Amino acid sequence: MSTTIEVKYFNTFLIKKIKNVVEQAVKPVAPYNNIPYSYTANTTYDWYVEESRIRGGYNNTSVDFGVKAYLDEQEPLQQNRFNTLIYSGIYNSRTGINNTNQFSVGEDITRSTDPANGSIQKLYAEDTNLIIFQEDKVSRALIDKDAIYSAEGGGSVTSSNLVIGQIVAYAGEYGISKDPFSFAVFGYRKYFTDRKKGCVLRLSADGITEISSYGMHDFFRDELADATKVIGGWDIHNKNYIVSLQTDTTYKTLSFDESVLGWTSFFTYKPDYVTSLVNNFYSFYSGKVYLHSSGQYGKFYDYPEIADSTVTVVLNKEPSLVKNFKTINYEGADGWQMDTFVTNDYSLTNISGGDVAGSVGKFALQTTLSSLESDMFLNNFKRKENKFFANLINTSLASGGEVLWGASSSGVKGFWSTTKFKLINADYPTTKKELFAVSSDIVESSY
Fold first, then answer.
1. Are 261 and 349 within one domain?
2. What predicted TM-score, i.e. pTM, was given to this entire model?
3. Which of 385, 403, 406 is CA-nearest to residue 395?
């Protein structure tokens, strides 16, 4: 509060009170710290005199701004606006303007999403749009423009001075939950997971697609429910989306391939973070960065073991026919071996789990006559015209009153079969061994 005193020569002075200038007297220090003291407000310094006009002249320019309105905030605490975006002033390096530290409350600098969809977890700027990932919704906001909708429902875009324009939600009740690290982007496709709904999603030009439904719906529904952390990234070397579902003790890392619209591989590494740079795929583990585009196959990080590569396929030709699987064949590189061959439980009296064939060893090139003779009596893959084949030797027990069974019979009976191929990567540390196709010769069962 101020007061005005009129004096000679028409000069005007303002006497103003300063709050809390003197809070307490200064306590004496040694060697005078034994002198008693008490608090006494020094009123001399609680006030000051200010001349109202420049140079004290009559009717000169006033230097006082008069009474100013202000807002006294009753709760001056930080607010957590979990569903709101705010932007600062502009930054222009060419003109030297840097207003990034200015957040003027007098301007429209905030834009809020629906709080019912949870907090904002991820922002991604794409061209002139801002994609907003909430826990339960994905939306896009126009940047430096706004949308005008007609009465018929059509829309057009117009330029505007708004930094963040209207927020429009994508169709579908999907979000990113609380896993922003599951986000990956390549081209116009964005990949992420929704742990609450148990699915993996792709956002592209045609909207949001649930890619976990490509043969893996049950898997992701169960694994995402138990996962405590989800790490995602784009493997630019193999053109795959990599996602790792992790708990404190276990993990499942797998890849999605757009060319086949399916989940193609499981991997035996648990990354802390994954990314791609200049046609190479990298992952981070325990503070170190690792290149995945080269090195020993099946060897990840500083793990002591070398993991084997396995492929499991289902053979189901003529599914309504009870058949006998006679051989197992594959096309690809040498080195693959058949680990297991299992059919369904055909016999009603055989309740132990189906017919099982013995394993088939990998192909080995024989260079001497004696080794060739020995190989003829081993159930290994044989090569003919760059394709590999082997007989299925039945090692299961007799069941269902069969007259002829066991080691005296070849082939495995059933409606369908599941076979597992394995490649020991320790035998081929730097050589790529591909597997293209697996088949089996079948005949109609006659016993």
1. no
2. 0.71
3. 406
